[in-house]
Design a protein that fits this description.
With about 290 residues, the chain is mainly α. Helices cover about 65% and strands about 0% of the residues.
Length: about 290
Amino acid sequence: MVRYIVEEFGHEALLKILADLAEGHPINDAIQRNTKPIEELNEHFDIYIRQLADRYAPQLNLASPDDVRDQQALEEWMNDNPYTIYSLEHEYNQLLKTENYEETIPLLEQWIVVQPTPPYSDDSQNPYLLLANTYRQLGDTDKELSTLLQLAEQTPDSLAAFNRLLELAKEREDWKQLESNALRLLALNPLLQEPHRQLAKASESLKKPEQAIQSWNSLLHLDPSDPANVHFRLATLLQKLQPQSAKRHLLQALEQAPRFRDAHRMLQEFPETREGPSDNQTKGPSDK
């Protein structure tokens, strides 16, 4: 309804409705004051929503068999209805049991033709993800990547797609894609650790120190498993920009990992610590 109001009457009409609601007007009065009489609005909206539904996946068929226990009847029904979601999903699952990945590809491609856009009830019924996983099983990462990118265009809130895109970009050291997918994941959930970590690494490689510093700092607030390393990366980035902050992070890294040799070496670069402990004194049993 909001989309219809904006398309039909403009964004200003929506703002006026909200303003009327803020003043305490009943919702029907607020809508009617800024669009048209409710009865007429409902009639036009009914036409609009039906047209919208008709444009969505016109080949989609959600029919299902009456009795799935009778195998012969089920097979006959599926032969008569090969492009229903039920038939496609059922045949896919049967092939998957035998790990016959090659033969699932045309099925999944047909599923995408039938239902090219969201919503999908869950990841196990998302043909894009299933097809991407098939290519992954077959070792074809190029086609896996292409399929996931198609899904990302269709579904901007697919955590599963963006997590895998993040992994692929990391493996390929594609820093631009790593940055892009990390940002998209963080837009969905800013409390995920891995996107902050990968965004920081991508930012370092892309020579974006401010973004890298922000990402490492954000990761520190999420209780990472390797705080010493995070502090050290921050110290490295801040060494020339903010020496005192760099030294503080360096000391925090050593507090977490007293035998962190790279941190000891960096600490010796600060003028007031040049006469610090020798390299032999910082070695632990495992370093000798």
